[in-house]
Amino acid sequence: MIDPWSSAILNYEKLIEEFGIKPFHDLLDDIKNPHILMRRGVIFGHRDYGRILKAMREKTKFSVVTGMMPSGKMHIGHKMVVDQLIWYQKKGAEIYIPIADMESYSARGINFSEAKRIAIDEYITNYIALGLDPDNDNLHIYLQSENKTVGDLAYKLAKKVNMNEMKSIYGFSGSTNIAHLYTPLIQVADILHPQLDELGGPKPTVVPVGPDQDPHIRLTRDIAERFSSQYNFISPSSTYHRFITGLTGGKMSSSKPKTAIFLSDSVEEAVGKLKSAKTGGRESLAEQQERGGVPEDCVVYEMLLYHLLHSDDELKKIYHECREGSIMCGECKTKAAEMMKNFFEEFQIKRENAKDKAKSIIN
Ligand code: TRP
Ligand code: SF4
Fold it and tell me: In angstroms, rounded to a whole number, what is the distance separating the alpha carbons of residues 102 and 111?
């Protein structure tokens, strides 16, 4: 059972039941120093993660692949993926980060030079500033449009995928343009190409993503199977993380600035946004003292859980104080705002320092 103070898993039971994703918390005892997002139930599900555990335990090769679509600004929810990559980098994984410029072209109409600019100025800069080590040989960042190995593999794999299948997985129809239709195959190749002989041959691969990417994962696993005799692919594993709630209560989305704290926000902007975020507090102080707040419905609590508070004991304390009504939202927000301020002050310096390096990674 997962502790209530990290109740992240509850909403996703349905996904777990219907699609065969397995609960992640069952694995926790087998992981040495599990990532904070694993411990707290933010990473709630997986497919075939046992292979990754084995590779980490036996110190054999494994890869991590997770892409970024260069379509807009990075918000604090995107930080979660980077935090996981940093953890895997320290565990000795080969890290592959495709920049999905073909996807942003076909699905969002963003041209290739613009995608490259966004990738460098936003994504790669932030990834380095957040702590990914750009000088480690295990890091491979590339543009989909410039990676011939990936492009060629996608084409070869497309031979065993037909139109009916693409229609049923993605809802594509007769009017879907062919670039859009083809882009998922590029993603499949992103995930499988580290297993090609030229990159060291078959090895376990994990894809850490949000649940929206699961159709791609299922397609990739099916295709890996179809080509197993040709390439000996090991079916890729995946993990699924819960999305962070937007500041106004719905989804956090780069296209709706009011819902998001952007990594490029100034310290004042970020703190101001946190202070006006939706909480799980009650209508009146008296009611909150009597009935307690609802941390499960609180964006501020979520920010502490995902990003700001690294001590489990302190997080538990806030959870219980909130439930008991012994801490009020004003005080709690002030504490969280202080942590946010510290994070952003430091992060901005790191961002400045990362800018030049980011330019040299893809050129
Ligand atoms: N489709 C992903 C997104 O929308 C980006 C992506 C491209 C990706 N290639 C990938 C994700 C490979 C995981 C693995 O963000
Ligand atoms: Fe959220 Fe803190 Fe208010 Fe509880 S006291 S609802 S955790 S802001």
Answer: 9
